Amino acid sequence: MKLGIIAGGGPYPRRVADAWVKKGGEVFIVCIRDFADPKLFDGYPFMVERVGAAGNIISRLRAEGVTKISLSGRARRPSILSLLPDAWTAKAIARVGRSAFSGDDTLLRAAMNLLREEGFEIIGPMHILGGILAEAGLVAGPEPDAMARQDIARGIAVLSALSPQDVGQAVVVQQGLVLGVEAIEGTDALLARAGEQRREGPGGVLVKLPKIGQEMTVDAPVIGPVTVAGAVAAGLRGIAIEALGTVIADKPETLRAAADAGLFIYAVESQRFTP
Fold this sequence. Notes:
Blueprint: E1 2-7, H1 12-22, E2 26-32, E3 46-49, H2 54-63, E4 68-72, H3 87-96, H4 104-117, E5 121-122, H5 125-129, E6 137-140, H6 146-162, E7 170-174, E8 177-181, H7 187-196, E9 205-208, H8 216-219, E10 222-223, H9 225-233, E11 238-242, E12 247-248, H10 251-261, E13 264-268
Parallel strand pairs: 1-2, 1-4, 2-3, 4-5, 9-11, 10-12, 11-13
Antiparallel strand pairs: 6-13, 7-8, 7-9
InterPro entries: LpxI, LpxI_C, LpxI_C_sf, LpxI_N
Domain LpxI C-terminal: 136-266
Pfam family, one: LpxI_N
């Protein structure tokens, strides 16, 4: 079983590769230029290619005998004009049509359908790694108090309202006030911005959940040690995530960092959560 890993930034794709090999499989890594660091994949076969050269990527994956693909790691969505698409990519953009200019989830679904039509099976990183989701309840740190639970409920309501617009996965709420909503900048930048808007009194909560109907195979929400550090720097008291629906990267380190900082991580069933 040979897995092609389309790798963005951060250590997550390497961990996916290690887990797959540990299961007895083989891997080939596609390092997306300007996002993935090839040095992280020492010991594995890899190529480095730009986003717009999808035709070259697919040809190489086939030549390597890849039948399954997993997409993981951080990446920013490029503008269509910056892609400099090769012939395959240009045809793909024409085929997906309006989806190329829609929200991330709509575009990802279209891209995955194209890859499936090319004969690849798509496997989510969470199905390879295992143990990176959390059951409902307190995951780390102190139990959220009544005000924190109210902020969590407010965050869930805001994200539920935004979900049909395919905007973002996270919001920061403090004492009922929305300090920031995640858009294209990502969670780390959201936390930095929310920290600048912090009010006096008890700190707020980062609420990070999947969008309704989100394509979880390639775009599940993720938190990790960097998220915890950003939340602490922003003066937050906790992070709320979807039970069995938000990936905790570097889970032992993330939970330890939260506990050491006195920051709670709380897994909710968002459709049934009550403050």
